Amino acid sequence: MWSVSGLQRILHSMLQLSEALLNRPIMSLRTGQQIATANTPIINPNNLKIEGFYCTDRFEKDAQVVLLYQDIRDFIAQGFVVDDFDALTPPEELVRLKDIMDINFTLIGKPVVTTSKRHIGKVSDFATEIETMYIQKLYVSRSMFKSFTSGSLGIDRNQINEITDKKIIINEILKTAPVGANAIA
Fold it and tell me: CA 172, 50, 6 angle in degrees (round to 5)?
């Protein structure tokens, strides 16, 4: 029989798709109330790590604040848990993160090509390991014709060769034999 703490450890080590991380309430541990909403991830393109999230302050709707990943205490069904409102920082105060924020890197919609310049598709989603906030897998949607024959494609982070402003370059993909092809020994 599983204990509650055992199940929580398993859930924390699992990969989460981007939609599980975006537009999530940020809850204060001190007050038990929602203090903001996490909207957009701040992704470091050098190592594919989510450094934090741009958030909308619940009390000042026009004020954009940043929640750093290390200030997240827990992930629960209701959203992210932080100690208090002090975990949210105005972007201009995050000097060490300024260069990453200025890049404004986004994954969704980024073209994916192989090292031989063959177009694979566009990133449609990504999966993040919650404990470290490293993006582990990219999901690539393919052209209409290719999606009928082979569906979408999952790219592991170790298959990525280079990330530029305009595209993601991956190592060559092995071609698979058609279903029903005879193997020769």
Answer: 100
Three-state secondary structure call for residue 141 = strand
pLDDT in tens, 84-112: 999 999 999 999 999 999 999 999 999 99
Q: Tens of pLDDT along 151-161? A: 678 899 999 99
| Neighbour count for residue 42 (Cβ, 10 Å) | 22
Q: What is the rounded distance in angstroms from the CA atom of residue 43 to the CA atom of residue 51?
A: 6
Summarize pLDDT for 70-80 with one digit per residue, the tens.
999 998 888 99
Evaluate whether 27 touches 85 at the Cβ level (below 8 Å): no
Place of tokens 């924390």: 12
**End-to-end alpha carbon distance in the chain:** 47
CA–CA dist 22, 108 (Å, integer) = 12
3-state secondary structure of 5: helix
99-103: long-range pairs with CB below 8 Å, 24+: 100/42, 100/43, 100/44, 100/51, 101/42, 101/66, 103/45, 103/165
> Domains of the chain, with CATH numbers?
4-103 (2.30.30.240), 111-170 (2.30.30.240)
Say what the pLDDT of residue 133 is.
93
